[in-house]
Amino acid sequence: MLTVAAAAARAAILAGAATAMLAPREGEWPLEGILEEVVSGPFLGRPLVMYLDLAFGLSASLMARPTLRDVHLVLVDLKAPGGAWCQRQTTEVLQTEGMVHLALLGPNSRRFFEDLAAAECRWRPAYLLLVDAWGGSPDLLTDAAFERVEWLALLTTRDSPSVPPSVVIYSLFPFAQQSQVRQTGVWDANTSLTHLFVDRFPSFEGYQFQLATWLDDNPYLYQTTEDLEGKADGLQVEMLDALGHALNFTYTLTKEPPDLMWGDLEDEAWTGMLGMVHRGEKNFTVNFFGYSLDKTHAFDASSSYWMEGFGLTLLAPPPLPRWRAAYYPFQTSVWACGGATFLLVLLIWTLQVRKQQHKFFITLSPVLYPYR
Ligand SMILES: *[C@@H]1O[C@H](CO)[C@@H](O)[C@H](O)[C@H]1NC(C)=O
Ligand SMILES: *[C@@H]1O[C@H](CO)[C@@H](O)[C@H](O)[C@H]1NC(C)=O
Ligand SMILES: *[C@@H]1O[C@H](CO)[C@@H](O)[C@H](O)[C@H]1NC(C)=O
């Protein structure tokens, strides 16, 4: 809630500035209609981070239309240096799953993203839609900056005599052996989020991943023979084989990390297996790691598949003493009633014997000697 409020506040300030700059250049953005369709279509109800080149920006009248006016918006100027912008942002703006990022590219907007990629900041949008109104090459999807985006698409105009020009959707399939950049559809007002952002990893097409591992993690990952390097077995191997079969990839393992460490942040550098992944020497690791704040900041983890439990163990109590076998069948109240009855009978009999009074004896005799 706070985030959205903060985003809205920031947007209000920026939008004010943008309006002043844009007013005289009304109507210059070639795909203005698309923007409204995207925001009121697939992106409906989602907070937006919008990158635009203010020099080729949008008209103030467009920004004031109802569909755009009510959107929670963070505006970003593509003319500013990307790295410096990134340093000032909150994690929510840079990484939140629910936020969609929309970049309205001008002819020179790639520089912003190159700077962003070089700055090694935590910019990692879940959804990024690039809109290139100038008909540039869709190969810009392969730029290093977009490597960490999960759902990525590009809208661009196609050279055609039709008016208005048709707008096509491109996406990047990084593991495809041929034509990594592919047209995945044609934009129309009805395009849904799932049509706009297609699954870019349906198969890894036989890719060989290099894993940073330590084959010393029973029963998850362990070495099966002494002499064969990297020949391993365990739960992780079974999981990798099953995934590799379904997603078409293979993998290589590492017998142990060179520094014989698991992975911790020491002097700003990651050690062990996590260090190998962090430095890009290996693609990922499947050993058994616990979570920490540093790790969740620096690495993506799968959902957890095993939970460690803690318990207390006590000595079992010895068997009950034998005499209790007689005592336990009845509750204390039953025993108390029995005792009270015994005392009562004792009292009556004592009275009877002691006093031997005729009257008393006559009175009680039917009770005490009923068969006489
Ligand atoms: C969108 O869908 C509606 C109904 O499903 C249809 O009437 C309309 O023509 C469609 N618009 C476009 C641009 O395809
Ligand atoms: C895996 O991908 C490669 C390369 O695209 C392909 O030649 C092979 O047939 C695929 N294997 C399976 C089982 O789909
Ligand atoms: C996997 O790691 C290798 C070795 O560092 C690297 O060359 C390759 O680009 C990585 N693959 C991916 C998909 O990141």
List keywords for this structure.
single chain, alpha/beta, Rossmann fold, D-Maltodextrin-Binding Protein, domain 2, 2 domains, 7-stranded mixed β-sheet, 3-stranded antiparallel β-sheet, 14 strands, 34% helix, disordered N terminus, binds 2-acetamido-2-deoxy-beta-D-glucopyranose, Glutamate receptor ionotropic, delta-1, membrane, ion transport, transmembrane helix, ion channel
Describe the structure.
This protein has 372 residues and is of the alpha/beta class. The protein has two domains: 4-196, Rossmann fold, CATH 3.40.50; 207-298, 3-Layer(aba) Sandwich (D-Maltodextrin-Binding Protein, domain 2). It has 14 helices and 14 strands. It has helices at 2-22, 32-40, 60-63, 66-69, 82-87, 91-95, 110-118, 193-196, 235-247, 272-278, 293-298, 324-327, 332-355, 358-368; strands at residues 48-52, 73-77, 100-105, 127-132, 151-157, 167-172, 181-186, 207-210, 216-217, 221-223, 232-233, 249-252, 265-266, 269-270. The strands form four sheets. The protein has a seven-stranded mixed β-sheet. A three-stranded antiparallel β-sheet has the order 9-10-11, with helices on one face. A two-stranded parallel ribbon has the order 8-12. The longest helix is centred in the C-terminal third of the chain and has 24 residues, at 332-355. Residues 1-27 have low confidence and may be disordered. One 2-acetamido-2-deoxy-beta-D-glucopyranose is lined by residues 210, 280-283. Its main location: membrane. Residues 219-279 form the Ionotropic glutamate receptor L-glutamate and glycine-binding domain.
